[in-house]
Design brief:
Largest sheet: 8 strands, parallel, barrel
Number of domains: 4
Oligomer: single chain
Distance between the termini: 21 Å
CATH class of the largest domain: Alpha Beta
CATH superfamily of the largest domain: Glycosidases
Strand content: 25-35%
CATH topology of the largest domain: TIM Barrel
Helix content: 10-25%
Number of helices: 14
């Protein structure tokens, strides 16, 4: 059996080397991609593929190489991305492939890294992106109905899809040209809404498939969530679990296009967290039960810069609880534990691709094995315990195995367990701003440590008032309530509705006599409305098509009623998106008048699109201050509504990601050096709905392991380093509700604490099984021991060991404490091995620490502090032969 694992490893490396060679300036030797019922076939060989979801516009081009490299290091073979139509064609017929939308550059970087690319053209993408990725001008084409058997829509869709396919072909980026693109996608989760369109929806699916294949891309096409995908299109699964999914033809492989490793977040919402033990379980079960391609949605989530966030009401951060966080830092233990499961699956790949199907063995009432056998003695197995509560000891091929609840053990040689999904050996990297958010039993990887903080100087702020109501010559008046998007075309979040109301002496007397006040009633509104009377703000409301009723106070005579309608991201999901608007629906009425209600719906309304400062681009670095009216801001002037603020700041030292802490502000938008970093809003999440402990066992949903209750959903906003200058960086804010800019600070984010918790009965690191000493037989399985590894980020070293205990330590990371059993040498051994190093490894065994309590399973728990210093070589204690 030992020789079987060595043979599997050799076959795996031969396969990888054959498929990833760069020759004569090409990313790969030109190769064909096809498929059978088992897997994608790349250059004639079946492959088990792991894909990392990265959306290029949610990062800067300067970030792309590092994100791709970290994905590859984490075990990815493929990068997957949508194509964002609204970003590439913001104006009909005018294309944008520059900056964050330089799709060709992104694809080439993926190829240069030796990874493949899955390009999901859509062009509908959902993705929590504004309007689902559709450009808003699309809804104005006469007679158009999106995503159905509709000639105007099909013409525009085909034109854009062809544009992208032709672009990939012209740049020689398809696999048969030596490029990285191995697969494409047409449409996106259409099966979820297909019934809304009846027979026209079914006809549209066939048209979309034939149109896509007819473009001659030369690689397979996918439709996800599409059970009626035509024979020439692979239908694929999206969800938290896809191990039970089967395509609609036995000629197609089992593909998982979206493994939801987290979830998106709304303003005023809690932060979803998916435990890595459950995520690894879902991944292992997928490959165990016949899956062959799995993509993480997202591997890197990134940032919704500008006004790209969809919704309504999705936050600017698209962190998604992904293995690589919004800033490009590793989220541990998620990244590390997934790296281990990927390595274990790769050890099984020769057997997985050799077998047409698995042998199923029932091991217990809720325990089962799937065995894959290849030529000769090649054999790999997955042992699963799907019991949510109890561990189970099972017999498999004459040996005994203990399986934790809700876990999968991976045996690349059908004998040795190299990985179990419930046993996390990867370190936890703590990026902590609020220690209270880290429970003793639930270490969330979504916590931030502020390494350096630079508050802005109070005397440096300038301010400028935004006019209330009409400010430009392009306003117009009609006797109707117009739909928000029909007026703005999404050029701005903001639209002023202005009318005049006459109040008679009799009305005033009526209110005084009856001690009542009139009310403004709006039948239906989304997303935000601010109500002004005679220039004074008298109330606000927010919601998704909700009724608004507000008491109002008028003076005798003519009164100006102003409504500021605001969008906070356009709808990105659902049928008939072209009909979904914003602003107001139904009637707008004044109630409580002496002679009855006053219907304002057909009164003369004046419309003013956007903000004066927005259209004058006062946030641009090349915009002169002359005649703009900026004045020095004093503390007595805050808070103030509808105000512009600006200041200058120097860039922070080092290379760590930079954020602005806008927790002192209300709601608005921010720009740095002319770059729109996104909307901000300090809405607070409900105080309830978060779990004290997060139990990974059992099916996950987005409400299961929430964090951040009772706190603002988002206070930190990413400012990419490439957008900053060494000094004199311009920050401009538009504040709607009256925040305090004097308390804004710029910060850098880094990993300040790393922790690890490894037991002596844990498995050796997966990479050890492919070490030459093991493959050659010089090192037996009995000689391999569990290893604890600590890593600081690049450029950081381990400054101190703040806790170390080999024995029975309690708690987790920030709450570690010694138990009844403790080796007194723990701290000194760890300090000697790790301090001053960027990384270190320690064998978890009695031979290193001594045996403080015989006949007891010991655990090594370590907490270390990282600081920025020149790094030195790492040290490995205990396995000198490796």
């Amino acid at each position: 059996m030992h020789n079987n694992l060595g043979l599997l490893i050799k076959l795996q490396w031969m396969m990888l080397i054959a498929l990833t060679v760069t020759v004569n300036g090409e990313y790969f030797k030109p190769f064909n991609v096809s498929y059978d019922h088992r897997a994608l076939i790349i250059d004639g060989q079946r492959r088990m593929l792991v894909s990392a979801g990265i959306h290029y516009p949610r990062a800067t081009p300067e970030m792309w190489p590092d994100l791709i490299a970290k994905s590859k290091e984490g075990g990815a073979d493929v990068v997957q991305t949508y194509v964002f139509w609204s970003g590439h064609e913001p104006v009909r017929g005018q294309y944008n492939f520059e900056g964050r939308y330089d799709l060709v550059k992104f694809v080439k970087l993926v190829g240069e890294s030796g990874l493949y690319l899955h390009l999901r053209i859509g062009p509908y993408v959902c993705a929590e992106w504004n309007f689902g990725g559709f450009p808003v001008w699309l809804r104005d084409i006469p007679g158009i109905v999106f995503r159905t058997e509709n000639a105007p829509f099909k013409q525009e869709m085909q034109r854009f899809v062809k544009k992208i396919v032709d672009l990939m072909r012209e740049e020689a980026l398809f696999s048969w040209q030596g490029g990285p693109v191995i697969m494409l996608q047409i449409e996106n989760e259409y099966g979820n809404i297909e019934d809304s369109y009846g027979q026209k929806g079914k006809d549209y699916v066939k048209w979309a498939a034939n149109m896509a294949v007819g473009l001659g891309a030369g690689v397979p096409w996918v439709m996800c969530q599409q059970t009626d995908a035509p024979e020439n299109i692979i239908d694929a699964c999206n969800g938290y679990y896809c191990d039970g999914f089967r395509p609609n033809s036995n000629k197609k492989p089992v593909l998982w296009t979206e493994n939801w490793d987290g979830w998106y977040t709304t303003w005023g919402g809690r932060l979803p967290h998916r435990p890595v033990e459950d995520l690894a379980f879902a991944v292992a079960r997928f490959y165990q039960r016949g899956g062959s391609f799995q993509n993480y949605y997202m591997f890197f989530g990134g940032t919704n810069f500008g006004r790209t966030s969809g919704g309504p009401n999705y936050v600017t951060s698209y962190d998604y609880d992904a293995p690589i966080d919004e800033y490009g830092l590793l989220s541990q233990p998620k990244w590390g534990h997934l790296k281990d499961v990927h390595a274990a699956i790769k050890l099984c790949e020769p057997a997985l691709v050799a077998a047409d199907s698995a042998q199923y063995i029932k091991l217990g009432s809720m325990q089962e094995a799937h065995v894959y056998r290849g030529n000769g003695s090649i054999c790999s197995a997955f042992l699963a315990n799907i019991d949510e509560h109890k561990a189970s000891t099972v017999q498999f091929l004459g040996q005994s195995y203990t399986l934790p609840p809700w876990s999968v053990s991976i045996l690349p040689d059908c004998k040795n367990t190299v990985f179990n999904t419930a046993k996390v050996g990867a370190q936890t990297s703590v990026k902590v701003a609020d220690i209270e958010a880290l429970s003793a039993k639930h270490s969330s990887p979504k916590l931030l440590m502020i390494q350096k903080e630079e508050p802005f100087m109070s005397e440096s702020w300038m301010t400028l008032k935004e006019p209330i109501g009409v400010w430009g010559d392009d306003n117009f008046t009609v006797q109707a309530i117009l739909e928000h998007l029909n007026v703005t075309k999404d050029r701005s979040d903001y639209l002023w509705y202005i009318t005049r109301v006459y109040v008679s002496d009799e009305d005033i007397a009526h209110w005084n006599e009856n001690a009542v006040s009139p009310s403004l009633k709006i039948d239906s509104m989304r997303d935000v409305v601010r109500i002004f009377i005679n220039g004074e703000l008298i109330g606000s409301a927010q919601g998704d098509w909700v009724q608004v009723v507000r008491q109002v106070q008028f003076k005798q005579g003519y009164n100006d009623l102003l409504l500021l309608s605001e969008t906070v991201g356009l709808q990105n999901y659902g049928a008939f998106l072209e009909k979904d608007g914003a602003g107001f629906k139904g009637q707008i009425t004044l109630t409580g008048f002496k002679n009855g209600d006053v219907n304002l719906t057909h009164s003369p309304w004046t419309y003013q699109i956007g903000l004066k400062g927005e259209f004058m681009k006062i946030y641009a670095t090349d915009n002169s201050d002359e005649n703009l009216g900026w004045t020095k801001l004093t503390k007595e002037e805050v808070p103030s509504i509808l105000s512009w603020y600006k200041t200058y700041f120097d860039s922070l030292g080092g290379k760590d990601p930079v954020v602005l802490d806008l927790g002192s502000m209300g709601k608005g938008q921010a720009w740095v050096n002319g770059h729109h970093i996104g909307r901000y809003w300090t809405l607070v999440a409900p105080k309830d709905g978060c779990q004290e402990t997060c139990d990974y066992r059992g099916s996950y949903n987005s409400e299961k392991c929430n964090t951040n209750c009772g706190k603002p959903t988002q206070t930190l906003y990413h400012v990419p380093r490439s957008w900053l200058k060494p000094s004199h960086n311009l920050l401009v804010l538009f504040e709607e509700t009256g925040g305090n800019p004097f308390k804004i600070s710029a910060k850098t984010v880094s990993v300040g604490t790393v922790c690890s918790h490894v037991s002596e009965d844990y498995y050796p690191p997966v990479h050890m099984w492919s070490h030459p000493s093991y493959i050659s037989g010089e090192l037996s399985t009995d000689q391999m021991k569990p290893v604890m590894e600590l890593h600081c980020d690049d450029g950081y070293t381990i400054a101190s060991i703040d806790f170390a205990s080999y024995g029975t330590p309690q708690g987790s990371c920030q709450t570690f404490s010694t138990g009844n059993c403790h080796a007194p040498t723990s701290s000194s051994i760890l300090s000697k091995a790790c301090e001053g190093k960027n990384s270190c490894k320690i064998e978890v065994s009695n031979s290193v620490f001594g045996d403080p309590c015989p006949r007891t399973v010991k655990t090594l728990a370590v907490k270390a502090r990282c600081i920025r210093q020149p790094s030195s070589t790492s040290r490995y204690i205990g396995l000198s032969e490796l």
